[in-house]
Amino acid sequence: PFLSLCTNRLTEPPRYDHDYCKTLCNKLSDIIKDDVRREIRNIERYKLICCVTIGQNKHQDLRVASRCLWNTAFDTFSTANFANSKLFAVATLYAVYFE
């Protein structure tokens, strides 16, 4: 739910702007991590990594993928997508347990 709420903020700008979207990626990443830390208890044992990709929508196909060394018992992730007629966004939050 946190990722969807944040990516829904991407209704502006009406056109793709590289510099604005670069800044927006950083801001959205920080917002997502802060929201999760604030809302979920016992998260201090997890390292939160958030990757946000924003690009110009020219009706092309794009696939965002990642590979990680993963402990399926503790580590988890969540992904949200957004698209309008001018741009797209993919936000992925990884929660990696550490001791």
Description:
This protein has 99 residues and is α+β, with helices and mostly antiparallel strands. It contains two helices and three strands. It has helices spanning 2-7, 18-39; strands at residues 46-56, 76-83, 87-97. A three-stranded antiparallel β-sheet has the order 1-3-2. The longest helix has 22 residues, at 18-39. The model has no long low-confidence stretch (mean pLDDT 84).
Produce a short descriptive summary.
The protein is an alpha+beta fold. Helices cover 28% and strands 30% of the residues.
Q: Span from first to last CA?
A: 27 Å
Query: What about the largest sheet?
Result: 3 strands, antiparallel
Mean pLDDT: 84
Shape: globular
The tally of helices reads 2
Cα gyration radius (Å): 14 Å
Pattern of helices and strands: HHEEE
Question: Which structural class do you get from the secondary structure elements?
Answer: alpha+beta
SSE blueprint and pairings:
Blueprint: H1 2-7, H2 18-39, E1 46-56, E2 76-83, E3 87-97
Antiparallel strand pairs: 1-3, 2-3
Task: Record keyword descriptors for this entry.
3-stranded antiparallel sheet, 99 residues, 28% helix, 2 helices, alpha+beta
